[in-house]
Specification:
It is built from 21 helices and 26 strands. It is α/β, with parallel strands linked by helices. Helix 3 crosses helix 4 and helix 9 crosses helix 11.
Amino acid sequence: MKLKTSIATVSIAGDLRDKLNAIAAAGFDGVEIFENDFLTYDASPSEVGKMVRDLGMEITLFQPFRDFEGMPEPFRSRNFERAERKFELMKEMGTDLMLICSNVSPASLGGIDRAADDLRELGEHASKHGLRVGFEALAWGRHIWDHRDAWEIVRRANHPNIGIILDSFHTLARKIDVNSIRAIPGDRIFIVQLADAPVIDMDLLYWSRHFRNMPGEGDLPVTGFMRAVAATGYNGPLSLEIFNDQFRGGSATAIARDGHRSLICLMDQVSRAESDIAIEVAEMPDRIDVQAVAFLEFAASEEEEAKLSALLKTFGFNLAGRHRSKEARLYKQGAINIVINTENQGYVSSYHAVRGLGAYAVGLRVDDASDAISRANALGVKLFEQPAAPGEVQLKGIEGVGGSIIYFLDESEAFSNIWEREFVLESPSASDDTAGLTHVDHIAETMAYEEMLTWLLFYTSIFNMNRAPMVDVVDPGGLVRSQAVQNGEGTLRLTLNGAENRRTFAGRFIAESFGSGFQHLAFASADIFKTAKALEELGFKCLNVPENYYDDLEARFGLDPDFADRLRQHKILYDRDDKGGEFFQIYSTTLGEGFFFEIVERRGAYAGYGALNAPFRIAAQRRAERATLSLDGNRLLG
């Protein structure tokens, strides 16, 4: 099976020309022309066809043709007249395949044989024009809503110009056994349409029309569906048909790029699962395992660097080294490396000019940095590289979402002794564990809610990561949707927080820092109480948590009063899961436009992020900011 990519124009925003340009730029081989997109565009069928071909693509399908099979007279005769006109249009446009979706009209008559007779006759009409017709079972069809019935109709029609069209949403939404697809001959499948979706208990039509998304962005087992399709020997296009309100209002370029990436990733996973089936996909390494977060880098002015470094010192970080050729300093504790870069040239300077103080780069330690670069490149991710001075390490990475940079390091000679080669190191004691912080527990990224699926697909297509259930974080300014992704070992944990408006704490961060990005970093402690005591001795000012929180906490979990008092004394937030796993959190106040740090301890098998504590954290942050503003009328760092 050779991967031929296609997408329906209905999947993205814009007029037809905008859509076609975005689809071609994303690298698609073909496009489905949705009839309404053509009807609302001021160009002839031949002009549209030429536009597609000039962009290096083909028209894989013209769709949809509705309410055809099983109609009584006079509707039946009128349908054949309507089909003839569409066939003429298709020939002029330059496509040979039309989609007929199963009938939803109240006037339609049931019966497999009746439908087969109608399609057989339509096949005769199509053959005179050198065209083909594909029949698709809509999940909400009046009589036909199962691909098994659709295939039986096509089988009985027994016409070479009539085939079946399979759509993953219609099959998976009905929870139909995908293995039934394996019985369909591959040459009788005329096209395969793909869509994922979150699992929501609602009307099938409404679910389909508003909540579809790209394969890998939802909860449906699309990989299993495609494994069954591949087993048939099908060798035609794989086409995305996505109805999504956010996509219709988003960037056509970004959505098309996501769609192309999702198909490449999907077929890569299918090829690995179906090793006995020949699937021609771009060669790439498997999804990347991350061993650790190697470093985090901040862009800052000299004034901001002084304030950020002062805060880090209250966490127990020490100045570990100064860069040999750049205005950058290294701070270390345990396995945590923080670089503060104040260069006035290059990417960091451009980032800071637009965004101000912020964490803009992360270094990830992987098994093979070249493999990570190769996989990202195969998925259409832009590579990133800056010149290195003689003797310095040549770091290579990729452009993340939100203007971030992700670097890859491994254990090869190229990255050996990186800190010694890059920095003039201070005394050995500079890297001790003053406050007991051991490693980066997780990184929180904030974005507009409509961008969340893009970020999710980006990470899960490149890295070997799984999604946790999405949770709603209640902010006084509105809801923030939070989606955690992490690998099995917990060496890379990310929380993606989607803000729906700028009144929320997360939304204001996006608005005032001019875009999505890293909003907070969480460091792990082996003993939160020892760390809290050490921080107090170092002069750390934690976020103030009200007494009401601890009174409720003690009652909610039935905590021992002495234990609750220890939490209260050190302003530690607490959570516990139903298996007895425990989670402890200490927060800093905010920097710049809403950036902050967190210190956590996990006990037992706790895998969450303390979502129930988020409203208390947000309220405390808002109080702290109001107190700061009341002192001088201006927002301060720290």
